[in-house]
Amino acid sequence: MDIQPELHPPSPADDIVIRAARPSDCDGITALGNMPGYRWGTLRLPYQTPEATRKWLEGINPATNVSLVVEKDGQIIGNGGFERHQGRRAHVAYLGMGLHDDFHGRGIGSRLLREIITIADDWLNLRRIELTVYVDNAPAIALYKRNGFEIEGTHRDFAFRGGAFVEAYAMARIKP
Q: Could you say which enzyme class this protein belongs to (predicted)?
């Protein structure tokens, strides 16, 4: 019998589930994206609507995108994934992820990132994963470095956030 396991099945001492995002998650993902801490680390604008989130979720192309959510007790507390490039950059994907403001420092982001990397490495044979992270986001930078990402450069005046321009690092991981 061919049984396919969940990406991250819960263990008896663990109520975290990592699974594919679906359009019915639009309210939870919207609430997550509207959290001040979550939004601070992204390019999102304040007051994202559930309708905009649903449109984005419905437009995800499973041939080029992976979109996961992290659930705890039925609440979405994180999301992440990647978009695979096409053509001569088909070996590359661009990563994005974030976590609920109240769940940092518990290893949840590490688990989500490992799931994303596993899909990239073991299922899609991607060679390179790229991301951009604000230079003042030390916890995220440390997480990415622990998982094989390296800083490749700095984007000056990358984004306008909180009334000022901020820099961001270009980071990438080459499959070992």
A: transferase
Kindly report the CA angle at 69 between 107 and 112, in degrees rounded to 5? 30
Q: Give the CATH number for residue 43.
A: 3.40.630.30
Please tell me the predicted confidence (pLDDT) of residue 14: 67
Q: Please report, rounded to a whole number, the percentage of residues in the chain having pLDDT higher than 90.
A: 81
Instruction: Tell me, yes or no, whether 158 lies in a domain.
Output: no
* Residue 29 DSSP SS3: helix
- The domain in which residue 29 lies consists of 16-127
The dihedral through the CA atoms of 121, 130, 82, 96 has a sign that is positive
Mind listing the pLDDT tens digit for each residue in 5-32? 444 444 333 689 999 999 999 999 999 9
> Cα torsion at 40, 43, 45, 48 (round to 10°)?
-100
- Cα 7 from Cα 81, distance rounded (Å): 13
Residues of the chain with pLDDT under 50: 1-13
